[in-house]
Design goal:
Elements: E1 2-3, H1 13-24, H2 43-53, H3 55-67, E2 70-73, E3 78-80, E4 83-90, H4 109-123, E5 128-134, E6 138-145, H5 149-153, H6 155-158, H7 177-180, H8 185-196, E7 203-210, H9 221-231, E8 234-240, H10 248-256, E9 260-263, H11 267-280, E10 285-287, E11 292-294, H12 297-313
Domain VWFA: 84-277
Protein name: VWFA domain-containing protein
Transmembrane segments: 6-24, 44-68, 299-317
Amino acid sequence: MIFQHPQFLILLALPVILAFWEWVRRGHPMVLPFDHGRQRRGWFLRLLVLGANCLPALLLALAILFLAHPMTYTPPEVERQLNNVQFVLDTSGSMAEDHGPQTQGRHRRFDSAMEAIEQFTNYRQGDAFGLTIFSRNYIHWLPLTLDTQSIALSKRFIEPNNPKLDPPSMGRHGLPDELWGHTYIGKALLGATELLAQRPTGDRMIILMTDGESSDILPPKDIEIITRLQAEKITVFAILLSNEKIQPQLANIARSTGGEAFNAITGDALSMVFKRIDEMKKVVVLEKRPQVVDFYEPFFIPTLGVLAASVLVLFGLRFTPW
């Protein structure tokens, strides 16, 4: 415990002097007829009355402690550095194709991507996550938020169509291929970059998941994208959800920003990729210094108790004036 105004503590000498004077003073003794008898000294009652007379001095001491403003240090708070992670997810029709073994029913590339995203967000609690979907154009479906459940709830509204694989009886969902077809990775990366650039604090990261190639990252457009990403200090991780060779320009974009490009041909492989990303972008723990806060609490109850006792003894527990 410390005091904001320790110079006031010297005033504690006053209640000590008052209490000492109360115990040693004789007052104005008056001889009464029974003083020459053999009565007991009554030490217990005397000590009780002297203690009651010292209560005002104790109240003064407590008031001086309050005046000195007691304070204490709080335990150091452990805080992690915020990471801003924007998922850029391809939702073109090809993302509805099968991904990995189909032993437990239909499992699409889109399903694997959403499952991996959900696992990653649950594991990295404390980071801010956002979701951008893209194909011909892009939509920032979910802004950066600490509410990770929002991404999982969006699955039903963004899953892709594939008329070649899904019979008409399943009903159509997602955006029509006529408006949403093709894959433009460069446009989506620049859009996510503009969004992340608005975050003033924390690291910035893009995790791109796609299953195709893009014409809008071919030279010289890839240089423009890399320059923009590097200027905003954004790290890009690119994941290709197929066994095809990763487009060289996409791999170059990722590595130029400090990230990497991966192939993931199964859901298990995709989970391993996300573990690798977690290792490459570890959580940074910041330990904050302890803060100084008011420390009046230990004095409240004793002060109220002494005040109540002082009021009660005024009803008669005192030396008689004769």
